[in-house]
Specification:
The complex is a heterodimer of chains A (282) and B (294). Chain A is mainly α. Chain A is 69% helix and 0% strand. Classes of the chains: A mainly alpha (282), B mainly alpha (294).
Chain lengths: 282, 294
């Protein structure tokens, strides 16, 4: 920096430490709450120090669930979330790679038209057309299935744009060389283009996994069978299911387990995450 | 729109490559959207026996409906509140982190992870903290003389959902502000320092104006986020209440369509929301174009 300013630096650290504290606080409270016995939440203020029941609470939510309130053991819900997130991520990546390849490396009638059809999806978030989309999925008999959970969400204009952008920067010579050597389009795609895009693919993978894992409204609507509940929507069932005050120690144990996988993904792949976020710009 | 100088020959292959994406888009995006458009001109009687074509009647009713106008007002307050709160905190953190040399990465790591938390979970977390019976925040607020209850006070409920929605968005804004700050040439700031401008003056006359493209971009993104991605925050906590105080547009579409089963009205609301998204997307793209060319 331009000048040294000890007091200013100290102040900056203070602001940041306070900021981090505010940002971390809700999750800290959740972790603390998940270690207490049920009695703690009947009276007084919530505790700020850990209690003795951590093991018991986590075993309860993972193995038993709360059958009375209609939520299955969350082991199954975690698995459903994982399958849905992976299906959405892999689906989005594959169809976007293929369509970006077609748009950049081929010249064919209606190319611009298809580009705009894909572009339109950017303007139609699932929340704003929720009723008719639900009807389509119901007509296709895809309620309560992994296909219904994932396929309607795999069209992605952003991923297609990003790959198109990237393919435009790939040197022309690579393709010319491949053609001289007699490689067909699919061989070029598989052996040259995809390996070159691997960093972009990984960055998008992180973003889309988080997107898929955190889906809420969609699974809420199309799953009525507890066998297909995902963890993020399951929490809502736990909070509002039943007339009594929620069993906070179990709810918070579930919250911690539901938030953990995507947080770990970000922490361990921070560089890819930042790249993915700033390049997709959405 | 350009392609490569040299392209592959092929008559059916490009269509086959596009087929999966176009199929999903047609079946799950374009078709439902056109259905929403169609239904917004229709009205069913309460038994579902007759469907009449009513032209713009659904829209007229909607715009005359005090509940809808209320939802519109609530959405504006909610989006502005969320955008302002999360962007100002994120800018403050980004400016502070940008001063640091050794601890920059550590602070960044500690600030980015809430991006991974689902909106619904963010809602539940803050709902717990503000729980009137056992929450820590009402306890502290009671000491300050405020009787917090988001189950009866509309203002309290609004503050709660704004905090929850803004909390989750801080990391996103922080990363973009930090990237923006790091792209400002150091020489400009040094020149101003030599001319005797104080740190505060340098920030407001040089850094902040140079950040304005990022700020504008983030404003659009945050408004889109607050309007469309915060369904989970509302649904998992206040459910639009108390007395419609947090009933944002996206939540109302869902309520009217799935709970009240008023398909015509819900479809008309969808169409209005789509129009808003189209406008915001166009604004966002104009900005991106301008930034590429400046």
């Amino acid at each position: 920096m331009v000048e040294n300013n000890r007091i200013g630096d100290l102040l900056a650290h203070l602001v940041l430490i306070l900021g981090v504290a505010v940002v971390v606080f809700p999750v800290y409270v959740a972790i603390i709450a998940s270690t207490h016995p049920p009695g703690t939440f009947v009276r007084g203020v919530m505790p700020l120090l850990p209690g003795p029941n951590a093991l018991e609470n986590y075993t309860t939510v993972i193995v038993e669930g709360r059958s009375r309130a209609g939520t299955p053991p969350i082991g199954g819900m975690l698995w459903n979330s994982f399958v849905m997130a992976m299906a959405i991520t892999i689906g989005k990546l594959s169809i976007s790679l293929l369509s970006a390849f077609a748009i950049v490396y081929f010249r064919f009638p209606l190319r611009i038209f298809f580009f705009w059809v894909i572009f339109l999806t950017l303007m139609l978030p699932v929340e704003v057309r929720i009723v008719p989309t639900f009807q389509v999925v119901a007509d296709l008999k895809m309620l309560n299935s992994f296909a219904g959970l994932s396929i309607p969400l795999i069209a992605s204009a952003t991923a297609t744009f990003l790959f198109r952008q990237f393919f435009m920067t790939v040197p022309e010579e690579l393709m010319e060389a491949a053609r001289v050597d007699g490689a067909g389009p699919m061989k070029f795609f598989r052996d040259i283009l995809v390996p070159l895009s691997i960093t972009n693919i990984a960055a998008l993978f992180v973003i889309m996994f988080i997107y898929g894992w955190n889906q809420y409204l969609w699974p809420l609507l199309i799953t009525t069978d507890p066998e297909y509940y995902t963890i993020v929507m399951g929490i809502q069932r736990m909070v509002t299911g039943g007339d009594s005050e929620p069993l906070w120690h179990l709810v918070m144990a579930t919250v911690v387990l539901a938030a953990l996988p995507p947080i770990l993904v970000i922490l361990f792949m921070q560089r890819l995450f930042v790249k993915g976020l700033t390049e997709t710009e959405k | 729109m350009q392609t490569k100088r040299m392209t592959f020959p092929g008559s059916w292959l490009p269509y086959a490559l596009l087929a999966p994406q176009v199929a999903v888009t047609l079946v799950f995006f374009i078709w439902p959207a056109s259905q929403a458009l169609r239904q917004s001109f229709l009205r069913q009687d309460i038994f579902g026996l007759r469907t009449d074509f009513v032209w713009f009647d659904n829209f007229e009713r909607l715009l005359a409906d005090p509940l809808y106008l209320n939802a519109l007002k609530v959405t504006v307050i909610f989006s502005l509140g969320t955008t302002l709160l999360s962007m100002s905190l994120a800018l403050l953190f980004a400016v502070m982190v940008n001063r640091m040399i050794r601890s920059r990465d550590a602070y960044t790591t500690l600030l980015v992870w809430p991006y991974a938390v689902a909106p619904a979970i963010a809602g539940v977390l803050w709902w717990f903290i503000f729980n009137p019976a056992i929450g820590i925040a009402p306890y502290v607020l009671a000491g300050l003389g405020h009787d917090w209850n988001h189950r009866s006070s509309g203002t309290d409920a609004m503050v709660l959902v704004i905090i929850a929605a803004a909390w989750k968005q801080i990391s996103y804004n922080f990363l973009f502000f930090l990237a923006g700050l790091q792209s400002i040439p150091q020489s400009l700031i040094e020149a101003a320092a030599i001319d005797g401008a104080s740190r505060t003056k340098r920030f407001w006359t040089i850094v902040f104006p140079l950040l304005s493209p990022v700020t504008f971009f983030l404003m659009v993104v945050n408004v889109v986020y607050a309007m469309f991605d915060t369904f989970g925050v509302i649904h998992a906590t206040t459910e639009g209440g108390p007395a419609q105080a947090t009933n944002i547009l996206v939540y109302k579409v869902y309520r009217d369509g799935f709970v009240n089963l008023d398909l015509g009205s819900s479809a008309a609301q969808s169409v209005i929301l789509m129009a808003i998204v189209v406008v915001l997307t166009v604004v966002q793209f104009r900005y991106i174009e301008r930034r590429v060319n400046y």
